[in-house]
Amino acid sequence: MDDQRVDDQRSGARDPRSVAARIDTSAAHPRGLHPRIDTSVAHPARRYDYLLGGKDNFAADRESADRLIEAFPTMRTWAMENRAFLRRAVTHLAGEAGIRQFLDIGTGIPTSPNTHEIAQGIAPDARVVYVDNDPIVLAHARALLSSTPEGATAYLDADLHKPHEILAHPELRGTLDLSQPVALMLVAVLHFIPDSDDPHGLIAPLIQALAPGSYLVLSHVTYDFVPRETADRLNQIVGSEPFRARSTAEFATFFDGLDPVDPGVVPVQEWRAEHEPQPRPTSAEVGGLAGIARIG
Ligand SMILES: C[S@@+](CC[C@H](N)C(=O)[O-])C[C@H]1O[C@@H](n2cnc3c(N)ncnc32)[C@H](O)[C@@H]1O
Fold first, then answer.
1. Which of 7, 63, 85, 109 is most enclosed, with most CB atoms within 10 A?
2. CB-based pocket (< 6 A), ligand 1
């Protein structure tokens, strides 16, 4: 792990409005690792970091990702296109849609530009609450807390399986005003929630808690565009990890009852990508879906 990044001077640790000062990443372990970090088993956040070319990953993550790349050689294209969707989505929401509050659940290891950097680059008063359940993300959270003076950021070490805890968390309540619109972001997260954990039931209270004019932002892995053998191979590699790719029709149900934002549910690389380098990668190369809908 790049400890230097954790201690980065860009961090919001001295900012009284940030929670960085309360994140104890030093309580550690000789290598500076958080006691909950198990480096022997592949973790989604670290594997994704590796796919994006980051340095905050370990041998088990790299081995697992390399096996996925072997089965699906354009796996890195998915990761990069997913990240590009996040950038375009936040740009749209902070810009055209005028959103000033973001709840980014399943944040991932900081990857610049992060949600607050994009949003505050457009609206310096934007307020962002990040949530992730992986201790490696917590260990790097300071990089997520470098807010503008006008805006604010906070990080919650919390789990999507407990939406009511997220909503009641004092850091969330101190950072976001839930009487005003919020963009709820679950970007490349819901595929880690199997059907048996009721993903619809987990996001329902979050959606219900948000004011009219809020938005739901989702992206998701799909096997709709890959051969059956590839899908089977990928499922074998992730093995016992909770993971569920969903079809376009299944993914679309997460937006039921909400007002779709143009262009609706589309392959992730196609979402408002007119200004991206052309031609766009194909759906078979990416294997992801995305969409945004307005709440209320
Ligand atoms: C593939 S990364 C996506 C990061 C970022 N949203 C993006 O799209 O670039 C998925 C993240 O979701 C987090 N995650 C998975 N399950 C979660 C849960 N139940 N609660 C909170 N975070 C979760 C993982 O720890 C990981 O950091």
1. 85
2. 44-45, 48, 82-83, 86, 105-108, 131-134, 137, 159-161, 187-189, 192
